[in-house]
Automatic annotation (TrEMBL):
This is Transcriptional regulator with XRE-family HTH domain. GO terms for molecular function: DNA binding. It comes from Saccharopolyspora gloriosae. Residues 35-82 form the HTH cro/C1-type domain. InterPro entries: Cro/C1-type_HTH, Lambda_DNA-bd_dom_sf, MLTR_LBD. It comes from the Bacteria.
Length: 271
């Protein structure tokens, strides 16, 4: 299948499925074909009729993200259709709802059900939205932190005690800064994420130096060796999963990397 041809067909079928009576459009002559006319879609999207015609004729155009957004709105696409349109055009879809600040209830229940494995839910800027007691024991009592500090990256990079938990602290900090830069590139208009980065640059010279190196990284799995103040040395494997229905949220699950680490986590849980 040719994506250009599929884009043309997709736009045509979605235009033809629309009911003109659902739109506040001027009355025009009787319609011989179903749906909206091309000029009506162009008017609703704020683009030229010729551009719509060329898109529907598969004439090799690659619309910008702004044009794709305008077409999705004009055609009243659902969430899945909108994502499909962005995929066909090779553009990065924007989050129409903005960052989530509350864990989806099914994910919050899953976090509890995953015990005794430490688990938590984060959003794209690493705010911790839900956690189980095992994750709190491994990292920090999240309830005792102000909401603005319930952020995995702030804890990992800037918390005066937790940042010292990691045996390979330099690697953890370098990768953490690279993860933040990747998140910022995907969400440059998120003021809270920008504020977190700005604060870190202003108050931590090491963070500022690493930020200027412009490393980027998207790591959904890995391991970290820790010196926990209660259970001592523990190696943790982690996996980060993104739910299809809640794409702004990430589920992190941790487990002991070896038998001594699993035993140490069990001691932490029983405490």
């Amino acid at each position: 299948m040719d994506p250009t041809q599929e884009l043309a067909a997709f736009l045509r079928t979605r235009r033809e499925r629309l009911d003109p009576d659902d739109f506040d459009l001027p009355r025009r002559r009787s319609r011989r074909t179903p749906g909206l006319r091309r000029e009506e879609v162009a008017e609703l999207a704020g683009i030229s009729i010729d551009y719509v015609v060329r898109l529907e004729q598969a004439r090799g155009l690659r619309p910008s993200a702004d044009v794709v957004e305008a077409l999705a709105a004009a055609l009243r696409l659902g969430a899945d259709e909108r994502t499909y349109l962005f995929d066909l055009t090779g553009q990065r879809p924007r989050d129409p709802d903005g960052p989530t600040t509350v864990a989806a209830p099914p994910l919050a229940r899953l976090v509890a059900d995953l015990a005794p494995l430490p688990a938590m839910v984060m959003n794209h800027r690493f705010d911790v939205l839900a956690w189980n007691e095992e994750m709190a024991g491994l990292l920090v009592g999240f309830d005792a932190l102000p909401p603005s500090r319930r952020n995995a990256m702030w804890l990992c990079l800037l918390h005066p005690e937790i940042s010292e938990f990691y045996v390979d602290r330099d690697r953890v900090r370098r990768e953490g800064v690279a993860h933040l830069r990747t998140a910022w590139a995907a969400h440059p208009q998120d003021p809270a994420l920008t504020g977190l980065i700005t604060e870190a640059i202003a108050h931590d010279a090491e963070f500022a130096r690493l930020w200027e190196e412009r490393d980027v990284k998207l790591n959904g799995r890995g391991s970290k060796a820790m010196r926990h103040p209660e259970i001592g040395a523990v190696d943790v494997h982690f996996e980060v999963l993104v739910p299809l229905q809640d794409s702004d949220q990430r589920l992190m699950i941790c487990r002991g990397a070896d038998e001594p680490s699993r035993t140490a986590l069990e001691r932490l849980r029983t405490r």
